[in-house]
């Protein structure tokens, strides 16, 4: 089922999310709904707060990056097939020299800015079968994971841009809060006025 994506300004996007247990109600269905919602919006990641749930759960599917001709064949092959569910994730290490990439967010449609992140991470998490994993990721996969991980920590990519860029985007962000944006996917806005 495709769920509405929560727009910028909703307090749930600023919550440090709670861990869940494997007995969380209808967890498998929730995960499937998150993948459906992400795919419908042409996203590469989606965190539970973005559908209104303050829990430590996010999904990633980097298939669109697999078409980037600038990447090596092995990177493209990996990204084309990388799909993963992260439950109760904890980033253990972020390493390497920060690099810039133009990021966007399904909760912040129409806003894209360069964000600096470290290229290599080690992350501990539970998969969709609630089996514990500790894995290393790099490049685009690491970046998408870091972006979604920020969501479960109550952090948005707009928090990582300069004060000037924040000012330049303030009207766009206000429009999102007021529901004055029209992405081609279902959204829920905090201050939308009736029509």
From TrEMBL:
GO terms for molecular function: metal ion binding; peptide deformylase activity. CDD domains: Pep_deformylase. Keywords: Hydrolase, Iron, Metal-binding, Protein biosynthesis. GO terms for biological process: translation. Binds 1 Fe(2+) ion. InterPro entries: Peptide_deformylase (IPR023635), Peptide_deformylase_sf (IPR036821). The active site is at residue 148. Pfam families: Pep_deformylase (PF01327). It is an enzyme of class 3 (hydrolase). Its EC number is 3.5.1.88. Fe cation binds at residues 105, 147, 151. It catalyses: N-terminal N-formyl-L-methionyl-[peptide] + H2O = N-terminal L-methionyl-[peptide] + formate. Its cofactor is Fe(2+). Removes the formyl group from the N-terminal Met of newly synthesized proteins. Requires at least a dipeptide for an efficient rate of reaction. N-terminal L-methionine is a prerequisite for activity but the enzyme has broad specificity at other positions. Belongs to the polypeptide deformylase family. This is Peptide deformylase. It comes from Paenimyroides ummariense. The lineage of its organism: Bacteria, Pseudomonadati, Bacteroidota, Flavobacteriia, Flavobacteriales.
């Amino acid at each position: 089922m495709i769920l509405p994506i929560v727009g910028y300004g909703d307090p749930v996007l600023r919550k440090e999310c709670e861990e869940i247990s494997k007995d969380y109600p209808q967890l498998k269905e929730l995960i499937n709904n998150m993948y459906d919602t992400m795919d419908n919006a042409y996203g590469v990641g989606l965190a539970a707060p973005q559908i209104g749930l303050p829990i430590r759960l996010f999904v990633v599917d980097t298939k669109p990056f697999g078409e980037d001709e600038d990447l090596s064949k092995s990177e493209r092959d990996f990204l084309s097939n990388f799909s993963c569910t992260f439950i109760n994730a904890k980033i253990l290490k972020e390493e390497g020299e920060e690099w810039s990439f133009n990021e966007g967010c399904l909760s912040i449609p129409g806003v894209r800015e360069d964000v600096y992140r470290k290229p290599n991470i080690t992350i501990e998490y539970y998969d969709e079968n609630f089996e514990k994993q500790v894995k290393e990721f790099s490049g685009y996969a690491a970046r998408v994971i870091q972006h979604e991980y920020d969501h479960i920590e109550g952090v948005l990519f707009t928090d990582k841009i300069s004060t000037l860029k924040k000012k330049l985007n303030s009207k766009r962000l206000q429009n999102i809060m007021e529901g004055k944006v029209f992405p081609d996917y279902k959204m829920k806005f905090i201050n939308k006025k009736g029509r």
